[in-house]
Amino acid sequence: MIGIFDSGFGGLTIFKEIEKKLPNYDYIYLGDNARAPYGNHSQEIIYEYTKQAIDYLFKKGCDLVILACHTSSAEALRKIQKEYLKKYKNKNVLGVIRPLIEEASELTKNNVIAVMGTKSTILSKTYIKELIEKNKNIKVKQQSCPLLVPLIEENWEKRIETKMILKKYIKYLKSYNPDIVILGCTHYGFLADKIQKYFGKNTKVLDSGKIVARKLREYLIKHKDLVKKSNKKRRIFLTTDDNLFFDKAATKFLGRDIKSKIIFY
Fold it and tell me: Does position 180 have pLDDT exceeding 90, yes or no?
């Protein structure tokens, strides 16, 4: 079984593409909506929250957990892989940042890459460090977008207020003429079309879900024994807050009725 974890329902943008690419697995999606957004928390708190989610998903039978949350991937993944996974045998945790780093560094032509992310992700400078590690000639321009997650969580994607705020965030990044844009928060996928429109045709906004799904498929081909395929194809959706709110958002985005369960851990 594969677990997909996010601080809210933004990770559904990742799950949707993973499910398309890899339908023959069982999945548990866990959204920690009660404590979202993670982007405004300290590194220590994000690490603790992420550990709790991983423990829960492993106990529920997951052999692999995908941190669909960019903030958790930036602030907790490396430490979890180096230290925390020692207590678990034959299990692993992967994030969403590395696949996007690889894709962006391969696609850029002018070596200017823009990153939009939560406050915590931007302050961590993870994207800057890893992109430059891939190519020292790459210039990374970042923009913290703290207002976007709450607006998306409130289903305000089409409101004029959201469009105005989005344009303001993008104006700074656009001035550097990036040819690649990384959406450093899964929630931003709900605004991907608008973001692409504001940047224009000479800039490519990466589709995080499709990239992560493709990279996961490649990973599972190399690690065939880690997660078993399933004829049942179970889909379990969990949230730590109002499941009616979660179900409404998930149903809208996935295009089918979603019935989640509230859990505490």
Answer: yes
pTM of the full predicted structure?
0.92
Question: In this model, does residue 154 exceed pLDDT 90?
Answer: no
| Active-site residue (options: 36, 185, 212, 258) | 185
DSSP string, 100-167: HHHHHHHH-SSSEEEEEE-HHHHHHTHHHHHHHHH-TT-EEEEEE-TTHHHHHHTT-TTSHHHHHHHH
Catalytic residue among 1, 54, 69, 212: 69
Residue 26: what pLDDT? 98
Residue 62 known to be catalytic? no
Domains assigned to the chain: 2-95+210-262 (3.40.50.1860), 98-207 (3.40.50.1860)
Active-site annotation holds for 69: yes
Residue 214 makes CB contacts below 8 A (sequence gap 6+) with 21, 99
Q: What percent of the chain has pLDDT over 70?
A: 100
